[in-house]
Design goal:
This protein is of the alpha/beta class. Helix content is about 40%, strand content about 20%. It starts with a strand and ends with a helix.
Length: about 325
Amino acid sequence: MKVLVTGATSMIGKNAVLALLQRGHSVNILQRGESDLPVQVFRGDIRNRAVVQEAIDGCDVVVHAAAKVGLVGSYTEFYDINVGGTNNVLDTAKHTGCRGIVYVSSPSVSYSTTPVLGEASPPAIDDVMGHYSKTKSIAEQKVLSEQHIATVALRPHLVWGPGDTQLIGRIVDRASHGRLVLVNKGSAIVDSTYIDNVGDALVAAAERIGVHQSLNGRALVVSNGEPRSVAQLVESICIAAGVPYSPRFIGLRPAVALGRILETVFRLAPNSEPPLTAFTAYQLGISHWFDISETCELLDWKPRVSLDEGFSRLAASYQSEH
């Protein structure tokens, strides 16, 4: 099978490429930067239809992981990449003989300020917070409603692992500088996902999309299936990294209010990321964990690296650095 992976510079995209290669598949990648992966590299932007066409040509499946993430940027920029770029991938794939698209989405497309307690895969909704979640929701709904090619959306939840500069990097940096703050004492119960398990799930989806019709049009949450409190997860990360775990605490309502103020202030410095937004306050302050039994069944997949094993690997990576 020949697979195009977009966005292979991301931790998820790169891990998907390595997992596909381990399974013996041929891989193309489309990304803006350089790559040291042993694959065919197409450099360009997913908003460029000609580049997308060239990269997809001859592929059986597309794993579409490229996206604009984070908190910095205008809604137009998020929309152009996350919706416009996805439309390019979708329209090109269905006219070039691909049998399916695996869209890398996010659980944040399905909830906003209300806790999620053990549901399977709530539908994507329009009433979500933040440019990222809003545009990913629009794109996911577009992908899953497509009638001319098989599609599936995977929603990896709070992905982490060695080398992660997003979740792990931010927590370690703030803990190292005595700026670690937990909302509601970190009592919210959340799912998280070790990176290798995401790669396995994406390969399973790529091998099955367009073959097993039960996948078509589905959105599936991917996680370790081991919900823990935010405080437990953050403490485990700090222990693995060898940094102090001495958090300060803030209530949810004050955190949301502060986040809104910081969003307003940081609009004056558009290239700087606010340390807190209303969106991240809710992400840290309300529970969101999912029943992944349907994901396991439809993908014939299960997490092979437990959270505790993942933290052991994380600790080993930090020890090797020092």
